[in-house]
């Protein structure tokens, strides 16, 4: 996935750490091989290359992620949509690595779009999927979180009950440390080119995922455009949000919802988080500083 994964855990003496390490690698490698847009032979790339109306047999893991992505797309009123592969590539964030072209991006903004829910048909019984119409899928906003859940399941299979696993900034914790303390995860200050801690989140049996505008962007027409795409506006998300962190039991869900809230913005995003009873940290640009809005179990914290 072009980044690092990690696992910190406490276990009984005699555990075969080599076997655990190999299993952890296999867990994230499986996700990468199935869901990467950067690997031309991945299952996702093969689906993207396939003409509409042709079925493709795919692994159960990919079916799960596709199904979950479409469900969150509906729940977020279209703010999360994996059918943005064309936008991702046009803005230079895809595997082509092309420099964004102003004409191309403007054409895509006016181009008739299909949501993943409109374009995809999943046959769970036969473990296959097909596109009803041309669409390019991108799982960057959910696959990493699913990979973190895979790391957690891997340690669960070894009987390990105290751990913190992560891929880049997406983390999932189980249990507590032997000293009875929760797992401490740093919340990064959303400032480009620096690594600075803004705060700390303590996790017990929970996952956290963060989306922001401060790590990947392109400059076009004298403006900075972040990598998160607004599926409805057909362009990079543009609002006051600098970062969104979501805490949920599943890192896959937290990952997708962090992306959705970043697209929705500081008003619609906060309202939806409250409506759904979620726990979300919204960090807004406020001149040279930042403003925080904390929603805990749907309640606005002062």
Automatic annotation (TrEMBL):
Magnesium. Can also use manganese. Mg(2+) binds at residues 141, 255, 259. Its cofactor is Mg(2+); Mn(2+). This is FAD:protein FMN transferase. The keyword Phosphoprotein does not apply. It comes from Pollutimonas nitritireducens. Belongs to the ApbE family. The keyword Metal-binding applies.
